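If you are new to this repository, start here. Below is one unmodified record pulled from the training split, so you can see the exact layout before writing a loader.
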Amino acid sequence: MAYGGVFGDDDDDRLRREAMAWLTIRTNDGADPLTWLDIEDFRFDDDGIILRNRYKGIWKPRQLESAFSITTAYRAPGADRPYEDAIHADGRIRYKWRGDDPDHPDNRALREAMRQRKPLIWFHGVGRGLYQAIFPVFLVAEEPQMQQFVVATDGTQDIPVAPASVAEEALRQYVERTTLARVHQPVFRSMVMRAYDTRCAVCELKHGQLLDAAHITPDSHADGIAAVTNGLALCKIHHSAFDARILGIDPDYTVHIRPDLLDEIDGPMLRYGLQERHGQKLMALPKLRGERPDRQRLEHSFERFRAG
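And here is the target side for that same chain:
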């Protein structure tokens, strides 16, 4: 190893492997977010290489020829967020240049990572000082006219398909599903769990392993964005009931249970978990009003509940 100098390919590859192995353990296989202090616990050999620079969105340690990680900063509700619902028509997402100079050293570092097909770590802000680590990701194309790179979360960039073919459409759908699973869903979950302090909105259950981040407007819908205001922290029972239209939540944050279940006799879960929540307000809501469920989305969801 060339300590103090530029790494060769072997050491570069080993650094990336060890960094991602460390992140796999520290994030519970990508499920849990990390604070910026957690992220700074990583060290590689004696080189002092860190996973990200808290002051830069694009991080290239001096020992590397290409970028090592990228960061999307957290934006408070209502503020412009460049990656909100950023899945494009090809099923992939984009990462912007730094500034508008294509020859900026950070943009050259991204371009070199794309040329060498190096895996990157993407730290996506889900709260102040809190990041969801998504890894590995690859830069597979550059769109200079839009000042951005195309980000892939799998190896499908090398699959040859004919344009405008059935295979291309099938690949696009697959890439979109993969992108949702690898990027949007974990980011969405972390933002929602943080906002609700890891509590079910309906019953206040506080065990994270038994909680889901539920979409008010389904993510399969064009308007089903991965935003806190389109989310509810729900335990698995209440999430299933919400999706099955057994449980509805009106725009005033009141819980409703489907009428035919109110008179049914089954057991304690039905009685205490569903029937007794009928007509009650949500037990947990985000402290920040700007992160609370969007009332218009709840109204549309509640209409579907009543129609179902």
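Two things worth knowing about this chain: The longest helix spans residues 166-195. The mean pLDDT is 88.
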